[in-house]
Amino acid sequence: MNLISACIFDLDGVIVDTAHYHFLAWKRLAHELGYDLTPTDNERLKGVSRMQSLEIVLELGGVTASEHDKELMANKKNTWFNDYIERMMPEEIFPGVKQLIRELKSKGIKVGLASSSKNAKTVIQTLRIQHEFDAIVDGTMIKYSKPHPEIFLLTAQKLHVKPEECLVFEDAEAGVEAALAAGMKCVGVGDAQRLYAAHEVVEKTADFKITELAKL
Length: 216
Ligand code: BG6
Ligand code: MG
Fold this sequence. Notes:
Blueprint: E1 6-9, H1 18-33, H2 39-45, H3 50-61, H4 67-86, H5 97-106, E2 110-114, H6 120-126, E3 135-137, H7 150-159, E4 166-170, H8 173-181, E5 185-189, E6 200-202
Parallel strand pairs: 1-2, 1-4, 2-3, 4-5, 5-6
Helix pairs in contact: 1-4, 3-4
The chain binds 6-O-phosphono-beta-D-glucopyranose and magnesium ion (MG).
6-O-phosphono-beta-D-glucopyranose is lined by residues 11-12, 19, 22, 45-50, 53, 78, 115-119, 139, 172.
């Protein structure tokens, strides 16, 4: 029996490659502070809040800063990130994602968005997909960011479904951990070795076959 009645999508790195824009903006901050960030470092920044990402970036460079300076650095990074997303085109949505969402909905599956980003609404408006979701939860609506399960539990609540009926699509290790902690099924998007804890891993979001829903 198919128990999945809702699919919950992460945004950055699952629907669009804004994960790369976050990386470029953090890299720029690190360069200003005199060091570089590697793609491996970036994996730790995925899924976690802006301030938690900043703490990791500073730790990687061995930098200590006052709360005031941290605030300034986070704002600077966010300004650069916004410069990127302002220039983003609706066509940057990953191929096949809109079709996957529509196919799920045509089968009666509810669709939610759960992003730790406080910029999520701007991104989905730019991509013109804000109306595709039955519920949206972003970084402005939660207290704890992934790997805490709060964001997914709140999305399930807004969708009026039980956590065990949800399937989450996530590219971040912290996101997979959060989905599992919420008692949900999870499809990892990206590297199978890194996202080994997920129930299934696909290289790209649209590689997920809707027929898999019954097997999860
Ligand atoms: C998540 C990203 O979606 O949002 C993280 O994966 C990012 O890398 C986080 O730090 C917070 O984003 P924002 O836009 O609020 O700075
Ligand atoms: Mg992500």
